[in-house]
Design a protein that fits this description.
Two copies of one chain form a homodimer.
Chain A lengths: L2 E6 L7 H16 L3 E6 L5 H12 L5 H25 L4 E4 L6 E3 L8 E4 L2 H8 L3 E5 L2 E3 L5 E3 L4 H12 L4 E6 L20 E3 H9 L7 H10 L3 E5 L7 E4 L11 E5 L2 E10 L4 H11 L7 E3 L6 E9 H11 L9 E5 L2 E7 L9 H11 L6 E5 L2 E7 L3 H12 L4
Parallel strand pairs in A: 1-2, 1-9, 2-6, 3-6, 9-11, 10-12
Antiparallel strand pairs in A: 4-5, 7-8, 11-12, 13-18, 14-16, 14-17, 15-16, 18-20, 19-20
């Protein structure tokens, strides 16, 4: 007997039929003698529909009221899923974020989980109930409902697994696990049986869209054994855990991310501390910067370019437009770009990874605009239109057809 | 400066335009220097849509999960209304039932308000916020969300007005107040400027559908000054309060109720205590009985007939079918009936009210099946198809065209 936390996303509970399918998976797990806590997201397009309703009334509603509105989405899905499990004849109870004990900070719209008060969860499990928890939401110190931001249901599930020392946290998706590249786009991809937290983190950050990266961070910190698997095929998925042995394969996967914008500050005065001032100003606005490139100075000026996520691009530009700091430097913002990356913990002991990647891109005539590397990944910035071609070429170079 | 509680029903917040209209009414009241607490229902058909979703999954879901599901409806409407008020530039905060301090018993689906913990409401009012409260919902001692049953938002509003000693509780509807009969069906009706709690109670119970009767009971108990008025025309409505003077008009109105079923138990053994046993069995199932009629005994049997609301009819029949108690008596259930009533506190001092009513019905050839009277009302049971004709005839008899 084990304690298993399962998470199902919005597409898994989009209609009555899919909800019954999810109820089957849950009760199969419960029947085997396990305690089961389930985290669900809002159904299908509910969140988008609610945002549309809000915008009809107010283009710029407060984040507090937006959280009240959006958290109703999970409320509907937990109730419907609980009803499906009732129909199958199993004991079940649904809990909203605040009932499940989720305490967050008060950053409405993008709250961080501070603590889970586990009394109610433990109590319901003790009564042999299957517990259905609304993901993505919690309660702040002002007794207000908060949401964790998009993808927050993954974090909700991992946080419960961490707080209750669950034996496993299963994240159900529409693919069978983590692949060497997006199986919907690239041919000859392989599913990984295992991957480390760090590798998964790089993949998540780089737009693999299988797991929200915040959830992987929590899993790593509390050593939660994660499994990414399909809600359709019912075969074992990919296990995410601490590295135990180094496998033969040194590259885990190839990903692309098109949610990226490059801001170029051209002819910035070349004075001491200018880079510090630029990036601390971005940090103060909580804008995350990814790749940074600084040219060699010339004529007492230099060029500084950096990438941010697309939704931060306008804010980032606004920070510098007409600013005294840059003394008339030109500002350019480019959103027609994509970031393509290879990830793998074995990379650092395999020289030539970068060379292989760059050669593959050169062979298909793709120009590299920026480069960034870490111990376990190499990313390049290229033209957006060439992203899929780039992923296919790089994947073929590292995973030749057998 | 006064504290005013306002309640808006689902049709008043059905779409963005109507929500903006309601926001106008609220901020007009606030601008005049009043503290304003607003109670709203779920938008238009939201509740029915949610029930449909549930039934697709489970024909007989638990009431607990149904409450989790249905309470999301008000959650959406309070957030949208708060956003509309934000747009008009006024300080506002939305509160769910449990945030507003609504403690109820744990009769899921039809919970009773036990107490309102007013701390948060008082705090928000003190900060000069317009407060938008989700009607129809509360929290029971198990920390579970409960709903008050249909029409519960009226009770929510009156309960807040009672708990905070509000100067007035305004119930906004799609009519301009309380009329001598349904203005959508009967000609020459008059709007009442004032009506007593008791009269309103009889009208509410009898299906006038202006105010939920539970809310009138609370208003009477705590002496809350109620006003029923239109959210469209912005003219004074009908004030509901304790009788202060007896007015000339002795009949307040004529109503019909078609949500009624008659159960007839025919040839019941005529033994002592049989009526007690029948009605205590109904009471144990919490089935309210309205009119009761018992025939004179004959051949050691008698007939007992009573009316219940339509949704209780099947349960009531099931209680007696094949029951030892009745020893082979026949059971009949008739739902093609309607109850038509005249209500007025002046009735008892005006002999001949019953005669006037019966004569009006006789003149249009309507057969009376059962009769029930109280100090302030006379009800008759008639064929359902003749209900509208009966209301028109009785109304014309008491309120002749001028």
């Amino acid at each position: 007997m084990a304690l298993i936390v399962q998470k199902f996303g919005g597409s898994s509970v989009a209609d009555a039929e899919r909800i019954m399918n999810v109820a089957d998976i849950i009760t199969d797990t419960y029947k085997k003698g396990n305690d089961v806590i389930v985290v669900v997201s809002a159904q299908g397009d509910t969140t988008d529909d609610l945002i549309k309703k809000a915008k009809e009334i107010n283009q710029d509603p407060s984040k507090r009221e937006m959280d009240v509105l959006l958290s109703s989405g999970e409320q509907i899905s937990i109730a419907l899923l609980a009803m499906a499990i009732e129909k199958l004849g199993y004991p079940v109870v649904s809990l909203l974020g605040w009932q499940a004990g989720f305490n967050t900070n008060s950053t409405y719209g993008a709250a961080r989980i501070k603590k889970i008060k586990t009394d109610r969860l433990i109590n319901e499990i003790g009564r042999k109930n299957i517990v259905i928890v609304a993901g993505f939401q919690g309660l702040c110190k002002y007794d207000d409902v908060t949401t964790l931001g998009r993808g927050g249901s993954d974090s909700s599930a991992v946080a419960i697994a961490a707080a209750l020392h669950a034996d496993r946290c299963q994240i159900f998706t529409d693919v069978e696990g983590v692949y060497t590249a997006d199986p919907r786009k690239v041919k000859n991809v392989s599913r990984l049986d295992e991957i480390t937290y760090d590798e998964m983190l790089e993949l998540a950050t780089l737009g693999a869209q299988v797991l929200n990266n915040r959830s992987v961070e929590i899993a790593k910190k509390y050593n939660v054994k994660l499994e990414v698997l399909s809600s359709i095929t019912r075969v074992p998925g990919t296990i995410v855990r601490e590295a135990v042995k180094m496998e033969k394969m040194f590259i885990r996967g190839v990903t692309k991310d098109t949610n990226v914008a490059r801001i170029s500050l051209i002819e910035v005065p070349d004075v001491p501390g200018i880079a510090f001032k630029i990036f601390s100003r971005l940090a103060a606005k909580k804008i995350n910067v990814d790749i940074i490139l600084q040219s060699v100075g010339r004529d007492n000026t230099k060029d500084i370019a950096f990438t941010v996520s697309k939704d931060n691009a306008a804010d980032a530009v606004a920070l510098f437009e007409g600013s005294d700091l840059l003394k008339g430097a030109k500002i350019k913002c480019d959103t027609d770009i994509a970031k393509v990356s290879v990830v793998g913990a074995g990379m650092e002991s395999h020289p030539g990874t970068a060379a292989t990647m760059f050669e593959a891109l050169f062979n298909v005539d793709i120009n590299i605009q920026m480069i960034s590397t870490s111990e376990i990944k190499i990313s390049v910035l290229i033209d957006k239109d060439e992203a899929d071609k780039a992923v296919a070429a790089v994947h073929a170079a590292f995973f030749p057809e057998e």
